Recover the amino acids of this structure.
């Protein structure tokens, strides 16, 4: 049977809806992915087992190598549908191991498909240590001249420790559906009250943490469609021209200075709408409905 | 006991009404009531023992008036008899807890179901009956006519004319029953206007108008996020379209609320179109303006939709599609719950909905222990109207399947669409409905059954379709239901030989029997996969509430 294409918007397979394995297989060249520690090797969390909670044979993260546009890359993909992509000890060890192997194997880049709310609370300190090890491993990999790209467009976004990890990467690519921040909306509401942040106001959540906001703020290098193919093409283009600058103290200090100033510039603002107005966006309330291309054009017109 | 003489006065209700209006005038209250004097008005024109209708259903609510009434002095106002569609707001239940009201006739209680059940058990509330909407509306004109009604509208002018906006819903009906039996009509509005866009209720039917401090609450009850539709629901939607809609040629129908039916709506522009069904099924609807219907409307599938109420965010889209929706000269929709319920009952050939429990006779119920939730409108639409006379191919085919070629009447198709297990692995198919235990524990006249088994014609699950019209004995019916009940205890207890026989006769049909490739049942088949897709599909006319957005 010939099915007509779903009417207007739905393009290729959605990145947002895909599982970690679907993302990896569709992102890399067909048939090129070789998984390290696949589910068959059964590396699930010992902590969850102690708590009598169901584990996952891959502990919620897929790692391996493959090619992208014919070039060798290594890849990490968190599975947001398992415990919100949360980082536990085994999960973290797999990521760190992949990054260390990248330093040895020297792929062209490491692609880090982040989809995580941060640390896995069930594993407490083991999870926190895992996160700090991931941070160090990302910086080590970059110091070895291998770029690490964070791709954020899953249902869980990149929050908590994984928000920090994402910002330590060489660059971030986001879709509009992606979210990036430190404390998650529910955490802020729980700690500071609903007056501070209404986590159920989803439009507000996206105006403050979503891909469009991060793109306007310059926190991600590219805003891509929610389409695995668009992620693929964008990363291929980016890689072709990428010059990895390993982290240097003076550059980090300059960045720290820039962020401090940014904090002051937007201090007291409570909504992306206010920030966008301050950035000089003519009709901030139209931003949420703008298509990606229109937003990219709009940003080019801003003096950022 | 002395025999009472025939009364010589025949206008006691009118006199009583005049006296109450007089008292309000003496208290300095005219037609336009300042918000801060609303309690005084209520205490002046309502008397103990009155039948009061507080407007509200599962969509809009006269929430300011409900709050004010619940704060009145129980010394002055007590033993009120509430006659209203829905007991939905905390203030509605407060009325009983504070002793202002003591008796209730209603249809639906939704979120307050737990508190209501406790009040019944504590004997703080006396329930007359739990109705369907049409029954309650009917009784407004027979024996439950309100003495006072507290209604809600969008705007009023100086003369008290009311504009309801797209959420007309129950307002005209409540006002008609009250105003024409010498009752008192009090309206809360969101705004005063010099010129109304249109008049939905004439000012001389309205006694008092108050501008509420906050706009009336409207619940976006009919919005289903396509992102949450599962592949199982998509498969069941394919089975329903191919195995029921196409086979009977269903053009006039009503859909219940749920992800199952949302999936059907989103498959019309894709799967159903590919089957060549455009123009042959699903052309005329009694339906709230479901956002998930937008792609079907845009693709030209849908010709007409009459609605019970509106839906938050859909107003601009509806106004721009007046060929499809019922709209006033001003451009905005006029809905009407009573008329749409009538349409759903008598003018539609099919109702499809979901439920929480189904027993071996096909009876279904959404009642769960410790909660009185009531019925709303589903039983009106989910029932075969025995009084129907006009024929349609779908109605005739169903009638003849049930009673043979000599059938003297047709049958409405009443379809229950359920996954065999719902959340937390609770089986939907059960030997006995919880409704029976509820009847016992709450001393109800009847078990709260939502759809009677003898009205159900088809049960659709992920395991197949059971056509109950073709069953000839209660035993066959039971095995047909067991035969699609999957791995639930009810399904496992099937008589496999009988089930095989029923399948051979086409009473039970599996995905294979329907010629459906289950591998096609993916989310890629949905005409919209997210709320934002719906917005795009509407050309930006649909503006969903914040909670449904992720952009």
């Amino acid at each position: 049977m010939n099915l007509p294409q779903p009417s207007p918007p739905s393009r290729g397979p959605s990145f947002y809806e895909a599982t970690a394995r679907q993302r990896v297989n569709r992102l890399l060249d067909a048939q090129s992915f070789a998984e390290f520690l696949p589910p068959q090797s059964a590396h699930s969390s010992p902590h969850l087992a102690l708590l009598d909670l169901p584990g996952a044979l891959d502990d919620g993260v897929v790692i391996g190598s493959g090619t992208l546009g014919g070039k060798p890359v290594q890849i990490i993909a968190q599975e947001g549908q398992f415990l919100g992509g949360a980082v536990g000890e085994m999960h973290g060890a797999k990521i760190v191991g992949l990054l260390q192997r990248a330093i040895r194997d020297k792929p062209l880049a490491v692609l880090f498909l982040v989809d995580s709310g941060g640390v896995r609370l069930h594993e407490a300190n083991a999870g926190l240590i895992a996160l700090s090890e991931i941070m160090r491993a990302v910086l080590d990999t970059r110091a070895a001249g291998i770029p690490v790209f964070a791709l954020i467009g899953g249902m869980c976004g990149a929050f908590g420790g994984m928000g920090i990890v994402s910002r330590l990467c060489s660059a971030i690519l986001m879709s509009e559906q992606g979210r990036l921040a430190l404390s998650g909306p529910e955490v802020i509401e729980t700690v500071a009250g609903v007056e501070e942040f209404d986590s159920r106001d989803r439009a507000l959540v996206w105006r403050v943490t979503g891909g469009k906001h991060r793109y306007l703020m310059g926190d991600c290098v590219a805003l891509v469609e929610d389409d695995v193919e668009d992620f693929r093409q964008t990363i291929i283009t980016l890689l072709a021209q990428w010059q990895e600058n390993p982290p240097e103290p003076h550059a980090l200090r300059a960045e720290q200075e820039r962020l401090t100033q940014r904090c002051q510039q937007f201090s007291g603002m409570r909504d992306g709408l206010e920030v966008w107005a301050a950035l000089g966006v003519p009709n901030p309330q139209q931003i949420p409905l703008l298509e990606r291309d229109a937003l990219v054009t709009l940003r080019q017109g801003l003096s950022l | 006991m002395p025999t009472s003489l025939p009364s010589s006065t025949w206008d006691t209700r009118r006199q009583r009404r005049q006296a109450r209006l007089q008292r309000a005038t003496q208290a300095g209250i005219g037609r336009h009531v300042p918000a801060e004097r609303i309690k005084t008005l209520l205490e002046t024109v309502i008397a103990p023992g009155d039948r009061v209708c507080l407007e509200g259903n599962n969509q809009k609510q006269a929430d300011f008036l409900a709050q004010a009434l619940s704060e009145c002095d129980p010394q002055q106002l007590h033993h009120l008899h509430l006659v209203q569609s829905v007991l939905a707001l905390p203030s509605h239940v407060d009325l009983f807890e504070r002793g202002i009201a003591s008796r209730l006739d209603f249809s639906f209680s939704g979120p307050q179901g737990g508190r209501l059940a406790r009040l019944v058990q504590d004997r703080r509330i006396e329930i007359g009956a739990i109705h369907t909407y049409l029954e309650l509306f009917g009784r407004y004109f027979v024996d439950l006519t309100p003495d006072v009604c507290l209604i809600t509208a969008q705007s009023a002018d100086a003369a008290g004319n009311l504009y309801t906006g797209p959420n007309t819903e129950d307002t005209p009906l409540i006002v008609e029953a009250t105003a024409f039996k010498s009752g008192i009509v009090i309206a809360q509005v969101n705004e005063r206007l010099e010129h109304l866009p249109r008049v939905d209720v004439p000012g001389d039917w309205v006694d008092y108008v108050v501008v509420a401090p906050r706009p009336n609450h409207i619940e976006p009850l009919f919005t289903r996020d396509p992102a949450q539709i599962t592949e199982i629901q998509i498969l069941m939607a394919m089975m329903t379209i191919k195995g029921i809609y196409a086979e009977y040629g269903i053009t006039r129908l009503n859909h219940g609320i749920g992800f199952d039916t949302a999936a059907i709506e989103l498959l019309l522009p894709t799967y159903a179109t590919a089957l060549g069904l455009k123009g042959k099924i699903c052309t005329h609807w009694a339906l709230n303006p479901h956002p998930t219907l937008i792609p079907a409307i845009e693709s030209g599938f849908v010709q007409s939709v009459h609605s019970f109420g509106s839906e938050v965010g859909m107003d601009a889209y509806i106004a721009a599609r007046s060929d499809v929706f019922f709209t006033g000269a001003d451009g905005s929709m006029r809905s009407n719950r009573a008329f749409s319920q009538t349409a759903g009952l008598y003018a539609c050939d099919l109702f499809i909905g979901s439920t929480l429990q189904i027993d071996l006779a096909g009876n279904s119920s959404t009642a769960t222990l410790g909660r009185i939730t009531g019925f709303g409108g589903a039983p009106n639409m989910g029932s075969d109207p025995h009084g129907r006379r006009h024929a349609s191919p779908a109605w005739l085919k169903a009638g003849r399947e049930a009673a043979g070629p000599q059938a003297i009447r047709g049958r409405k198709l009443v379809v229950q669409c359920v996954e065999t297990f719902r959340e937390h692995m609770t089986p939907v198919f059960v030997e006995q409905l919880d409704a029976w235990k509820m009847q016992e524990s709450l001393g109800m006249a009847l078990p709260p059954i939502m759809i009677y088994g003898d009205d159900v014609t088809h049960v659709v699950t992920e395991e197949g379709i059971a056509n109950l019209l073709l069953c000839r004995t209660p035993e066959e019916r039971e095995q047909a239901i067991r035969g699609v009940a999957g791995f639930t205890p009810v399904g496992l207890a099937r008589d496999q030989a009988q089930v095989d026989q029923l399948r051979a006769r086409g009473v039970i049909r599996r995905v294979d029997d329907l010629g459906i490739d289950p591998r096609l049942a993916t989310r890629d088949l949905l005409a919209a996969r997210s709320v934002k897709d719906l917005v795009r599909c509407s050309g930006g006319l649909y503006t969903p509430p914040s909670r449904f957005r992720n952009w």
